Amino acid sequence: MNSEKRGPGFYVLTAFFVLFVLFLYGPLTTIFILSFQGPNGGLTFPMNGTSLRWFENLLFEQQAVGDFGGAFSRSLVLGIMTMVATVVVALLAGLAFRRRFLGSGPLFYLTIASLIVPSILISLGIGLAFQVFGLEPAWYSSAFGAHLTWTLPFGLLIMFAVFNRFNPAYEEAARDLGATPWQTFAHVVLPIILPSLIGVGLFGFTLSYDEFARTLMTSGTFNTLPLEIYGMTTNVTTPVLYALGTVTTVFSMAIILIALAAIAVLRMRRARRIAG
Amino acid sequence: MRVHSRASVANRRVVEPMSKAADIELIDVTKRYGAALAVDHVSLRIPAGTYCCLLGPSGCGKSTTLRMIAGHESISEGDIRLGPTVVTDLPPARRGTAMMFQSYALFPHLDIVDNVAFSLKMKGAEKTARRARAMEMLKLVHMDHLAERRPAQLSGGQQQRVALARALITDPQVLLLDEPLSALDPFLKIKVRQELKRLQLQLGISFIHVTHSQEEAMALSDLVVVMNAGRIEQAATPREVFNRPSTAFVARFMGDHNVIAGRVTSVDDGTVKFEVPGGSSFAAPAEGRALEPGEPVEIAVRTDRVRVADAVLPGCGLTGLVQNIEYHGQKVQVALAAPGVDEFSVQVPEASFFDAPLAIGDAVPLAWTPQDVHLLAASPAA
Fold it and tell me: What is the pTM of this model?
C-alpha cells in the first residue's frame, strides 16, 4: 500500500484523468477565448483581433434575438424562489417523516416517483394542465411548480440522510434542560443541521438555474436563461453567444467561490476564538 | 442560602450538603411497548442522598427505568414520586431530575460554556449572568480552563465532566446517569468513577447510575438494584448483594459464585439436604426457609471460599475435573466440571496454587464450610 515506486496503473490513470479534465474544460476554454473575438471576428478560429465588443453588445445593447438580461434575472429569481421553497418544504417534510404517520409510506413513494418520470413529460403535463384550467403558464407559476417537482424529492432525500444521522439524544438533552419544543428546534436541531440545509438550498438553486426540460413547456411567454441560450444557439450568428457563455460561467464560479470563501472565513473566525 | 452553598461548593473548601435532596420512589411502575413488557411492576425506594446503581445485562429494563424517572419515556402503569411530588406526568425539566446521556449529547455547535449555560438561556437568563454561573459549574468539575472549546475538541473524560456540569447547573434533586463510563477507557473509568462518587458526596443529592458492570456498581453504590427481564432481582447494599445474593441470577451476574441446583431430599435441624441430577448430594443451612422434600433448590458457594481439600463435612464438597486454568495475578481461577453441576470455579491464592500446581484433566477434591453456602430464592422474573 505504501510502496515508494508507482506502478504502471498510476500512469494510465493519470493519463485518463488528464483526458477527462481536457474534455471537461476544453470546450469551456474555447468559448472563453472566442468570447474575446475582435469586432469583425466570426464564430470560429482564427481570432480576428481581440476586443470586449461582444460583452458590450451583450450587456448594453438590444439584441435582435435573445433578451439576455431579462432571461438571466428571471432565472435568478426563479432559482431563489425554488431554493427557498425547497429548503422550507424539505425541512418540514424531513421533520414530519421522522415519525410514522398515516400514509407516510405511499406519500414517500409518490414523492420519489417524480424523480423517475421523464422531465419532459412532467413539463408537458403541467403545461397541458394549465391550458385545461385556462391559466396562463409563466416562469413564476407553472415553471416554478415544475422545478419543485425536481428539487423537492431531492431535498427530501437529503433531509432523510440528515435525520438518519441525527442523534435524538440532542433533543432529549435539550428537553431535559428545560427547552420547549420550539426552543429545541431553534436552538439545537436547526443549528446542528444548518450546514446540510445550506447544501439543500444550493442544490435546489443549481438544479433550477440550469433546468431545461421542465421549463420547456411551462415557461409561458418569457424564457428562462437555459431556454434563451438554447434559442440563441440556433439563431445568433455572432460571438455574443460566447460572451454569454463566459458571463454565465463566471457568475456560477463566483457563487461557488463566495460560498467557499464564506466557509473559510467562518472556520478561521472559530479557530481564532478558540486560540484567543 | 442557595447562592451561598453553591459558592462554597465552587470553592471546594466548605462542603454543605444541599438541604433539598429528596427521596425517590417507584410505585408499581410498568413500561409496555405494544405487547412487550420492558419494565414489569417495579417498586423501589431510593432514600435522599443515595448513590444508587441500576445493574443488569442489556435489555433488562434498567435504562428504560432510568428514562421513566427522567421523563423521557412515558410510564404505562404506576407512579414515580420525588419527595412529596408525584412526577409521573411532569415534563423532564419540571421533575427536579437532570440526566446525563450515554454519549453525553453535548451540543456540537455550542462551546463548552454555552453548553453548560443552555438551561439558563432557555429560562431567559441574561448572557453575562448565565455565563458566570456556567463558569462556576465548570470550576466544580475542573473544566473552566477549556470553556471556549467545542465538544469535539475534548477527550471523552472531559466531555463527561462538561455533561455533568450541564446537568448539575439545573440544581437537580436527583442526577440520572445513563452508562456514564461506558465510553471511557479502563484506566479513565476508575478515575472518573472516583470523581463521580466524590461529587455525589459533596452535593448530597441522589445519583442514579445505570451500568452493566458489577464492578462499577459495587465500587460506587450505597444501593445496588440488580435487574433482570424487567424486574428487580435484588435491591440492597453492595456487601449484602455480594455476600447474600437473593437469586441464582444475582449470584451468577455478580460473579465469583458457584450455583448448584437440585431437589430437596430432607430438611432437619436447620439443614437442607438436596440432590443434583448426577446423584451427588449437598447440604446447606436452611436460613429459616420452609422447604418441602422434592422442591427445587439452589445454593451459591463463593469461589474464593472453596478449598482444594477433602471434604470434612458431608454435603460440603465435591470432586471435579479441571477444565481450564486462568492466571489472574493475585488469584488463579480454576474451572472444573462435576456431574450434575453446570459450572464450578475455584479461586486459589497464587502462592498456594503454585505450591501444589494443578493441570487440566486432574481430578481434584474440593471442600467448603456451611458458612460459605447461601440458599437462593426463586427469581421473580421466572
Answer: 0.80
